[in-house]
Amino acid sequence: MERATYIFDRVYLKGTGTSVGPLEKQGPLGAYFDRDYENNYCGEKNWEAAERRLLSDAIILAVVNSGFKMDEVELIIAGDLINQNVISNYAMRDFDTPFLGMYGACSTSMQTLLTGSMFINSGMFNNIVVASSSHNSTAERQFRYPTEYGGQKPPTMTFTVTGAGAALISSKPSSIKITAATIGRVIDAKQKNPNDMGSAMAPAASDTLIRHFRDLNITPDYYDMIVTGDLSKIGSQVLLDIMNYENYSIDKLHHDCGKMIYSEDQKVFAGGSGCACCAVVTYGYIKHLLETDQIKRALVVATGALLNPMMTLQKETIPCIAHAVAFEKCEVKS
Amino acid sequence: MNKNYTEIIKQNAVKPRYLRNSIVAFVTGGLVGIVGQGLSDLYRYVFNLDKNNANSLMTVTLIIITAITTGLGIYDSYGQFAGAGAFIPVTGFANSMTSAALESRSEGVTLGIAANMFKLAGSVIVFGVVSAFVLGTIRYLFFH
Question: Which of the listed residues A170, A189, A209 is the one where a domain comes to its end?
Fold first, then answer.
C-alpha cells in the first residue's frame, strides 16, 4: 500500500481561537471556548452573515491568543460547508492576508491543518492560520430542510455545530508540536442514507487510522487519545467494531467530538457534526488537555461525508473521507 | 473497501421506533381532527355559518395556528414528537410553507419568500391536482 503519512519536524501549534453558538456553550465543553453568542444570529441579520462572524472571530482570536499580529500571518487556509465555500470566501474580504479556500465537508478542519503544516514544513511559510466553520441553520437549509420545518428527524441524524475554530501554526517552537498527518482516501461504504452519515463515514475513518498506524509502524496505544470528528453515537460504534475486526483495537482510546460537544440531555439526536465540530473541540478542548499535560499525544481524525442533496436524490451512495493529524506535547526550546 | 464492513454497519443500524411513532401519530393526528371538528361545529352552530363556510374557516384557523407556532419556533419541536401526526394533517402543509418562507426571507420577497414558499409543498400540490384529475375523469366516465 502506498504511503499516505507525512512526518513533520518543524511545525508547532502556537495558539487557537474558537467561537460558538449558545447550544455549544451550554454543552460540557463550553468552558473551553473563547467566545460565544447568546443566539444563533450572532448579532447579524442572517445565518450566513452569522457564520462569517464566527469564522472571523476564530481567526482573529487565534492570532491574538498566539501573541501575533495579523500582518505576521502569511497565509490563511479556511473552509466551510456552504456552496462555493462562500462563508470563508466572503469573510476573507475583511482580511488582507493571502488565502486558500478548501472543501472537505466535515473533514475540513484537519484538511486545512495538514495542508498548512506541509507548507510550513516545506520551509516556504513560517506562520499560517487554518480555520473552518459551520452553522446549524446554514447547513440545515442547504443540506436538509428549513430549520422550522416540522418533519420528524430519525435518531441517526446528527446536529450541525454552530461555531468556528482556527489555529495559528508556525515554524517557531511552542509547547504543542504537530508531528504527522495522514491524507485520507475517498471511501464509499455504499451507504445511501443522508440521515446516517456516521455509519457512512466510519469506514473512511478506519481506513485513515489503519494507514496511519501502518505507515508509522506504531500501535494505537502510541497515542493517549484518538479523536474522531463527527461519527456520532452510531458511527463511533461502527468504527470501534471495524478497528477490532482489523486487530487495531481503539476501544479505550477513542473519543468522538460529536459526542463530546453536547451533553446527553441536549436534543441533538446522534450527536454533533459539521466543520466546526472537530475544529472547536480540537482547538478548544484537546489543545487544553495537551497544554495542561493531561495527555501527551493525540491523534485527531476529522471525517467528512462528501455528499450534496442533489447527489442523494440521484440515488448515489455517499463517498466519505477522513484526514488525520497527530499532536504531541513538547518542551519549548528557547 | 472490505465487504465485512457493510455487515458491521448493518449490525449497528438503529431501527426507527415504528410502534411508538404509529401510536403517537394516531393520537396526535386524531387530536387535530377532533379540534378541527370542534372548530367546524363552533362556526356552524354558534356562529350560524353554513357547512362549507364553517369547514373553510376551520381549515384557515388551523393554518393560522400552525403558521404562528412555526414562526415562534414551537411547531418543529411538536413535529419531532408527533411525526406523521403533525405532518399529514393540513397543519403539516401549512408548516412546510411557512418554514420555507421564513427560511428564504433573507433572499428577498419575490425570489426568496415567494419563489421558495412551495419548495416542499409544491410536490403535494402537483400530486393533489394530478390525482384529482385522474379520479375526476374516472368518476365522470363511469359514475356520471
Answer: A170
pTM: 0.94
Structural domain for B20, as ranges:
3-103
- Does A317 map to a domain? yes
Do A113 and A34 meet the contact criterion of CB atoms below 8 Å apart?
no
- State mean pLDDT over A191-195: 93
* Backbone φ and ψ of A128, nearest 5°: -130, 140
Pairing of strands A12-20, A163-170: antiparallel
Kindly give the residue spans of alpha helices, DSSP state H, lying in chain A: 22-26, 47-65, 86-91, 108-121, 136-143, 197-216, 232-245, 257-260, 275-280, 287-291, 309-313
Cβ distance A152 to B80 less than 8 Å, yes or no, reads yes
Beta-sheet pairing, A163-170 with A127-134:
antiparallel
Report d(CA B120, CA A60) in Å as an integer.
39
Could you say which of B6, B82, B96 has the minimum Cβ distance to residue A190?
B6
| Whether A251 and A144 share a structural domain | no
CA distance A262 to A25: 9
| Contacts within 8 Å (CB) and 24+ apart, B80-83 | B80/A150, B80/A152, B80/A153, B80/A267, B81/B24, B81/B28, B82/A152, B82/B24, B82/B25, B82/B28, B82/B29, B83/A152, B83/B21, B83/B24, B83/B25, B83/B28
Give me the mean pLDDT over the A277-292 stretch. Answer: 97
A122/A34 same-domain check: yes
Q: Three-state DSSP class for B60?
A: helix
CATH number at residue A111: 3.40.47.40
B102 → closest Cβ in A148, A190, A245: A148
Buried b (16+ CB within 10 A) or exposed e, B106-121: eeeeeeebeebbbbbb
Please state, rounded to an integer, the average pLDDT across all residues of chain A. Answer: 95
Contacts of A149 in chain B (CB under 8 A): 76, 79, 95-96, 99-100, 120
A334 in any annotated domain: no
Contact status, residue A321 vs residue A123, Cβ threshold 8 Å: no
What's the average model confidence in pLDDT over A183-191? 95
Instruction: Say whether pLDDT at B88 is over 60.
Output: yes
* CB contact set of B50 (below 8 Å; sequence gap of 6+): B44
Residues of A in contact with B98 (CB under 8 A): 148
Closest residue to B103, CB basis, from A141, A188, A196:
A141
